[in-house]
Amino acid sequence: MKSIDELIFPEDVRYSDDHEWARQSGENILIGISDFAQDQLGDIVYVELPKIGISLNKGDVFGTVESVKAVSELYMPVCGEVLSINGELENAPELVNHSPYEKGWMIAVRPDKPSELNSLMGKTAYLEMLMGLK
Amino acid sequence: MMRYLPHTGEEITQMLQTVGVNSLDDLFSEIPKDCCCRLGLRLPEAKTEWDLNEHMETLSARTAAGSGYKIFIGSGSYEHHIPAALTHLLGRSEFVTSYTPYQPEMAQGTLQAIYEYQTLVCRLLGMEVANASMYDGASSFAEALLMAVRITGKKKVLLSRAIHPHFRRVAGTYLSPTGYQIEEIPFDETGRTDPHRLLKSDDPAAIAVQSPNFFGCIEDFLPFAEFARETGALFIATFTEPLTFGVFKNPGSLGADISCGEGQSLGIPQSFGGPGLGIFSGKMKYVRSMPGRLVGKTRDLEGRQGFVLTLATREQHIRREKATSNICTNNSLCALASAIYMALLGNTGFHALALLNRDKTEYLKKGFQKAGFSIPFQSPTFNEFVVNMPAGFEKKRKTLMRKKMVAGFPISNLYPDLSDHYLFCATETKSKADLDALLEEAAS
Prior knowledge:
The structure holds two protein chains of two kinds.
Chain A: E1 14-15, E2 20-25, E3 28-33, H1 35-41, E4 44-48, E5 55-56, E6 61-67, E7 71-75, E8 80-85, H2 88-91, H3 95-98, E9 107-111, H4 123-133
Antiparallel strand pairs in A: 1-2, 2-3, 3-9, 4-6, 5-8, 6-7, 8-9
Chain B: H1 9-19, H2 24-27, H3 49-61, E1 70-71, H4 84-90, H5 93-96, H6 108-125, E2 129-130, H7 137-152, E3 156-160, H8 165-175, E4 181-185, E5 206-210, H9 222-231, E6 234-239, E7 258-262, E8 278-282, E9 295-299, E10 305-309, H10 316-319, H11 332-370, E11 384-388, H12 393-402, E12 405-406, E13 409-410, E14 421-425, H13 432-443
Parallel strand pairs in B: 1-12, 3-4, 3-5, 5-6, 6-7
Antiparallel strand pairs in B: 2-8, 7-8, 9-10, 11-14, 13-14
């Protein structure tokens, strides 16, 4: 595992307590897991994503991510309807390891409350939480 | 190895002193009094080995089983010849004493045996992936229903009423605390599940049909597979007699999403009903939702072939309450028996044995018909079929039992609407003379 200063935390996404990130993309929000989360999990071998069209609340499980050593649930950082999923991950789950914020995105949602994104942590707050964890 | 010898009185006293209690009763004082057996064990005096053998022989002579009896019953458990080579190989200590193969570096033999079993099951059933086995056909069937609910997210399952009643009861037990709904599809006058009674509005998670069904009838799977496709349900094909697929088309080629059932007929003794073998197989696209253990083939660091437990993240020691099943083991020795059985028979032998079963059964069926008995269900059958016997046959059946002949299974116990209906089975273990003797007795 890497130390925190080796990990990447972009400024243009918001972070949840459960290590998901959320990024504004037009009117929608893209969701994935942070570099810290993928690094903790290790080599990811399978990503299970939700059915398109379902509506989920903040904190609901939207899928699971399976690595060689663990299975973890994925939690919604905001409320919304699932508009699309990253189909690439079915055959290339390792994209979550190599490119957690770009090619490794997981779902796109139409948020119920567009302002909810702001309730998530920015880079600084997330880093502080991670330092506390260490 | 620890020997199974009881502790001496002296040792017990020593141990009680060490832990600081006065007596065994004090040691177990935590156990509530009303949970303890107060009557004591009323065991007879010890017997000599000679007396004990005689006692056991007397007991065994009281049951209509074993040598000397001609048994014409299948009904979910089938009498077949078991090759001596199988019994010998199965008794090898490497297989008999081995525990669950957690450690691939220590358990290549066991793991490879399970892998071969899975491969043979896939070939027999025409399916893409099979697990390492489950407890028995009924629990395997119940697991299949739960898997369909997991995959589809729907809550109702449709079961053919011609599925073995014990399978349906176990499914009921599994599903009763879950809130999932079971509905039964009736059978028609041909003895087969009636596809006209399916309702699309039921929007089921699964439609399950057994072939040959409890009445021995070969089902036509196509309308059920099509119904499943149209409604987004999974089509579960179950069975109690897998030898059938030596002559009839297998579930995979007929559109089954999951094929599961009892494997006892593949080289496992009937043993009064258990242990059995829960065969479970499915389509590869559903592998992550499958219950049970899976063994996969891989390569080690030096590029050599090796076998390991795979996709273990489905299981409860990793996924806890989100696991696909609370069964984290398999019936390995029984699975091995069936793998040896299939391998010993081979493709040709399996086909020939299946033909022998079908032909003997057809001979018996024609004999009953010639003697004027009614065969109520006119569907094709494999090695068992239903005869509607005249009222009063039950008395004759009891008489025949004294002549060491077990003449059919009265299905009215399980289907009250089918009084005087008896299920007859003829496997390769019955000679022409045996079949003729049964026909003669029945007609007399």
